[in-house]
Sequence to fold (892 residues):
Amino acid sequence: MATGKRKSSSGRKTSGRKTNSGRKKNDIQQESFTEEVILWVILAVSILLFISNFGIGGAIGNAVSSFFFGVFGLIAYIFPVVLVIGTFFAASNKGNRIATVKIVAAVFFVLFLCMFIEIVRCGAEVAGAAGAYQYCSVHKIGGGFLGGLLAGIFCPNFGLLGSYVIDVVAMIICLVLITERSALKGVQKGSRKVYETAKESNERHRELAEQRREERELRRMDRKVEGVAVDTRVLPDRKAEPMGSDEVSEINIDKLLEQSNTNLPEIKEEKHVTLTAGGAEYQKLPAMEPETEPYVAPSAFSEEAFEAKELEEDASIFHSEPAYQESIHTEPAYEEHHPVEESIPYDAAEKPEEPHVRAEKVELHSSERTEKPKKNVKATEEDIQNDVSSIEEEIHLEAQKERKYVFPPVSLLKPPGNKQGDSKQHLQETAQKLQQTLKNFGVNVTITNISCGPSVTRYEIQPEMGVKVSKIVNLADDIKLNLAAADIRIEAPIPGKAAVGIEVPNKETLMVSFRELVDSPEFKNHPSNISFCVGKDIGGNVTVADIAKMPHLLIAGATGSGKSVCINTIIMSILYKADPKDVKLIMVDPKVVELSIYNGIPHLLIPVVTDPKKAAGALHWAVAEMTDRYQKFAEANVRDLKGYNAKIDDLPDGEDKPEKLPQIVIIVDELADLMMVAASDVEESICRLAQLARACGIHLIIATQRPSVNVITGLIKANMPSRIAFAVTSGIDSRTILDMNGAEKLLGKGDMLFDPQGVPKPLRVQGAFVSDKEVADVVAYIKEENGQVSYNSSVEEQMNSIESGNTTVSIDSGQTGDGRDPYFADAAKLLIDKEKGSIGMLQRYFKVGFNRAARIMDQLEEAGIVGPEEGTKPRKVLMSPEQFEQYEEEYL
Fold:
């Protein structure tokens, strides 16, 4: 009897719960039907109002039309259309605060439009609200009752012009609120483009003028003396005669330059050019500058004395002003005398009684000139050109450094949607169904918490005393069947809680907007420059990670599971967070189309690398850069990049102050393609960077869609502590990525297991979605606002030299020239002798570490000496001693 009573009471409770849930469903259906009826009624009324405005609505229609014309005036023609659109908009955005603001703004826009029409009709003589109603109801023009009411308020207080200004500004504000587009932004953008265009044009003209001035200078420097010989003497028929102080003559170098402006072909035969200085033949000019070396005119000239001098010493007689350090071209085809003036200093030893002497006719014999001075002039010209180009490059780089980075605005990103996800009622019903399912299989549990995420809801259950956790795990398929779920994942137990988590996909999946994460305080207040938005966890909380603490990240998953979107999220987070002076990027994209859009942003050290061979060179350059940074740290007596940059900040400013080193993030979008082309080089560089690069500020992010042991080798996985696993096809792939099952039960489309360093178990996170249009808009904005980007040419040169084979990088110095370990041959003989092989055996016999022993085993497998690994079993030996001897003779 007691048992029957308990059954009947539980049956009544169950029937009561079903009645309540059925009543709630009926209420929801009734509410939706009511809304639909109201929408159809409003649509019909609007159509009747619209046709009544044209006099075809009958007596009632005409009366209603006159009323609406009296209230709204000319706006009554479009009022039915506005009514329908506004009603449907409000019904489809029910409960949305932004939609409410837009509706209110639309109402005020209609009011101020009525006022504008009424002011245009009446001017300053406003008829008032009642007068406007009567006039508009009859003539069907004007602003109606509403326009007359507002005009009657504003025109007497602000005047006609002030009312126009207030009305137009108010309508513009309403339009901005409705369309969410700024009117001033377009003007700002246009004016900025005009300014940039004018600035570039001005710089182009200035550079052209500077180039022309340099060309003139170079042409003048290329002039040389032709027809002037070292053998210079006074003709015997014209000896020095005394002259007065007013007859002192000077050499007119400028006049000589003007007359020798034309460069004629060089004449190698001897020519005579006579330089005379006479009374009325020249014009008095000021003396040369004191720096000019004076020429002392002796009483007699010795031919032998002049023949012993060099051309440079002879040219000093005709040395011009310091501003024109150039050779002098004369015209050898002309034999006429050119009057020049020469400054004659006082020579007390020869003429003590006369301070000045009269210069006589001097004959300059031109002899054959060699080509050596001409070549020197050309060499000087090339050096000047190189100096100018190098200086321009330095100026450009300096301007690039000093330019401040303009961060992209969040408005370029798409705002989050308005979906609410699964209702609370649906979650409670699923929880009750889950509890009842477990109870049917003899597992009594209590549901302690429900965490609803964007795509998955986790039900936290606490089993009764004596219930094994494994019993709940074994019921996964039965739970999936009773809940009619696509797939479920059981986390037993939840770290830090005395509960088991059962993750069930939501009925309605919510997209996580990237803008929502960028706007979050978790991302804005994060101190790291290389932090990025991961997504939202299973409780709907924003998840932000720091690459510097990872310090390297492995991303893997099947095709279409969300890897490329995750990489775009990481890059976009850095663009929104970091200045190019602090963070630099190297992107490797063997698929060509994924990351090429980022070419031209200032964060890139080099353009996006698409050639797999050049990608290996880029990784080798990163290893060389890591070594160079550690040498700098040792010289500065610091341990990491943060300490080095802090020490540089403490140094006084000066020319010898070294530059701060940026953090470098290397992103490889598809590791499988690189491993197919250059497996050994890529694996060596990745392993060495993963082992040592953390302290020097170099971090790796590697993604692959083929999570197999051939791509994610043991060495790579051992040195990549942080991992993100997207949906995969099997538990084997999940274990390859995470060393545990779970990724095969993910839903795809950004659903991930995030396993950063230091977390006991992976976290389930829904990744953020960033569209191609958002990426393109942000990149275009950065390029436009931050100007042209100059890549580091030294990095490309070093990368190309490494690619061509001029530089080699290896993990340890114990490797031979062909890349094999020195213990390769001994290890092969050992395994052939033992007829089985394992990494532990190599460690014991050769006393090496696990990494080196594993590498030797991989080399033996590549050579075909041992077979592939078979789990915990030893590897099979595939060669006999005779075959290995033959192999050794051919290859070793």
Notes: Residues 1-10, 224-379, 806-814 have pLDDT under 50 and may be disordered.
